[in-house]
Amino acid sequence: MDTNLAWSAGSGARPMATLSARALACALLAVLCALFLGWAGLVAPTQAGAHHAAAQLTTPASANPVAAAAAGATRSVPATTTPDTATVPAVANDSIAVNAAIPVARIALFTALYTGLALLLFIGGGMYAALRDRQYLFYMGYVAATLAFLLARNGHMHLLPGMGWFAAWGAPGMYALGNVMAAAIVVTARGFADVSRQAPAIDRVLRWFPLAPGLLAAACMLDLDGKAGVLRIATRIDLFVAIALAIAATAVAWQHRKRTTLPMLLMWLGVFLASGLRAMVDGGEIAADAWKPFADQIAFALNALVLGMALTDHVIEFRLQRDRASLAKEQADASLKLERERLKFIEALHTSLRDAPSGDQEWLAFRRLLEVVRELVPQASSAVALHAFHDNDLLLCEPNDTRNAYQHLLVSRSGAFKGISRSQLPMQLRVDVPPTADGAQPELIQVAVVPLPLSAPAWGMLLIERRGWQGFEREELNVAAELAQKATRAVEDAANDRVLRINAEFDALTAVFNRRTMDNRLAAYFKESQVRRTALAVLFADLDHLKETNEVYGHAAGDQALRMLAETLKAHCGTTGVVGRYGSDKFVVILPDFNPEQARRWAEAMRTDAMARDVAVDEKSFRVGVSVGIASRLAEDGDVMPVIERVEKALAASKRGGRGPVQAPPIRSVSSAPPPR
Known about the structure:
By secondary structure, this protein is an alpha+beta fold. The protein is 60% helix and 13% strand. The strands form five sheets. It has a five-stranded antiparallel beta sheet with strand order 7-6-10-9-8, sandwiched between helices. It is elongated and about 145 Å long.
């Protein structure tokens, strides 16, 4: 049952409307068939009148094929006519009673039994057609076996249209049906109790026991001479054992608190007691009356009814499992979507913030936050408000046309929002929108406030607006808080990474690249020039007499002179070259696509500009000299080191030549100004 239900729920359950329609159609068909059954087998004989009864009175016992085949002595029952009886002849013994003077109440009993069982049979068929649950197939087999056994036992089977041939089997045919019923009892009880895990030993017995009544039913059909009494006793034992096994399996299921097992346990016990009562009546241990011989039949019919009602609980369980499967699928889809959006959000943050300017990092991160929150949390609008974050105030809204509304909300509730942001606890507020000028009703708005984890004095929050009475679930607030925390952390990490990168790549004094960065740049530019076969010039610029400048004007003056030269180099490079500090007073410039002559002219212009600039310190000013050396990449150079060696030699030659001239072999240039005094 559980497997079938899980399969149905997972692969698209049939709509309950279809199930109900099929069950109703089968129920109506069952009523019609049951009414026909009652008329054909029971009611019609009573309407035949006295003529039919008189004809049956003259019929000898041997003329009734079922009665003639019954074991045991027969007795003649005189015909009587009373207001509550229908006069019908009879031949009866302890196992088969046919053509008796049947009271009207007994006819009503038979009609109720057969009609009810037929109705249950067709309803079970409708439920199986709708649910495809094999338990209903077992139930149909059990009800059909019970109906056939009771019809045969009461001598009515051969009276049904087209069933006259059954009379030829006589009592062994009834015993065969009894064994079929025993097998159906065990199969149905095993499927209903489902104790394979709780009591595997009992489950194994239930699985293999139907073979015994099956073999016994086959033996009954062989029509063994002189064995009718043995078959009768074996059939009765078979039925008692089957009922006992059903009781045991249902009791185990009840101990494990399975639904609807207690009513079925009581019903199986009732069937067992009623069957025992019938056996005692047949054995003469208890005197028979109008109802005792039929106690087991009533018990079997009621048991089938209660079992059918218990199986309807499987429909409820089916719907519950379908709903649970649907809910589990929705939760799994939501979790999968959340995880997918979270990973995409984190990746987008790292990608967009890695190379973004410092002023754009906050805007990019929190714009991404609004986009992902809009996908995961149902909303009318959302916004991020920041105060004094990285010395800036920021308000981002989604959609943008809600900016004025959020500004008004922040102004009117600024104290509450600031307190919530300090508490770092997400919560929601109810905001009443005043009625508009056209007389419309005021609108209720729910606002979720999710604080951002910022360090004082900065504070900020994520605001999510939802219109109507529906508030925000705790899970929605947790998701928004998690994403807001990741966005804030990404901005902080990007800012810290930028600071670290600046410290690692740039010279703190002059704000140009440091030597390690320039070594990497030199190697990269050399490789590119070599691959593209383009010119590459490298320039060294050195302040003349920096030591004397520090001694005369102080180290602050020397630092100011270094900054002046760095600014001059950057101003002349623009976007064409790269500048870096290569030593205490030495700078390196990379000039891609510059041939030696172009590099020399660039160096002369830069040197002239630097020497013309005043260096001001403590209301004093002075000028410094600059020495320059240049070297270009040669075709035979395998790496950048030969270029560095040549430019070092050119700078040394410039200093030897009077400190200042631009040296680019074989070019010589003018000298720099004299050192400060």
